[in-house]
Amino acid sequence: MLDQILDTVSLVCVLGATGFSIAAGVGLLRFPDALSRLHAATKPQVFGLLLIIAAVALENRSLPTMLALLPVFVFQSLTAPIAAHMVGRAAYRAGQFDTDTLVVDELGPAVERSESRGEGADRPERGR
C-alpha cells in the first residue's frame, strides 16, 4: 500500500516537472527579449529539477541514491541562477533587450560608470 502511494506521489512529481519544462519552453518562445527568456528558462529548471529529484528519491529509497541526489540539487540550484545572471549581464551590455519592458534599470548606471572609467570595450548601443 505504501509503495503505491509513493509511486503515485512520484508520478505527480514527474508530471509537475514536465509542466515546468513545458512552461519554460513556452516562455522561451513567447517572451520578447533575452532578459525575459532567461527568467523563463531558469526558474522552471530549478523547480523542475527539484521535482525530478524528489521522484527519483521516492522511487529508489536508498542512502547512496540520496547522497548522490543531494549534491546534484545543491550545485544546480547554486549555478543555474548565477549562470543566468551572468548571461543576463552580457545580454544587457550587448544591447539584446527591449528597453520598453524594463520597469527599473538598476544596471544602467553601473555599466555607464564602468565604461566611463575605461573598464569596458566599445559597446554597441543598448536597447532596441
Structure, explained:
Helix 1 packs antiparallel against helix 2 (34-59) and helix 2 (34-59) runs antiparallel to helix 3. This protein is mostly helical. The chain starts with a helix and ends in a 12-residue tail after the last helix. The mean pLDDT is 86. It has four helices and no strands. It has one domain (2-116). This is Monovalent cation/H(+) antiporter subunit G. Residues 108-128 are annotated as: Disordered. InterPro entries: PhaG_MnhG_YufB.
Report a brief summary of the structure.
The chain is mostly helical and 128 residues long. Helices cover 76% and strands 0% of the residues.
Question: Major beta sheet, specifics?
Answer: none
Number of helices: 4
Q: Between the first and last Cα atoms, what is the distance in angstroms?
A: 59 Å
The mean pLDDT is 86
Q: Which regions contain 5 or more consecutive residues with pLDDT less than 50?
A: none
Strand count: 0
> How helical, in percent, are the residues?
over 70%
Mass-distribution shape: elongated
Strand content: under 5%
SSE string:
HHHH
Sheet/helix structural class: mainly alpha
As an assembly, this protein is: single chain
Radius of gyration: 20 Å
Tally of domains: 1
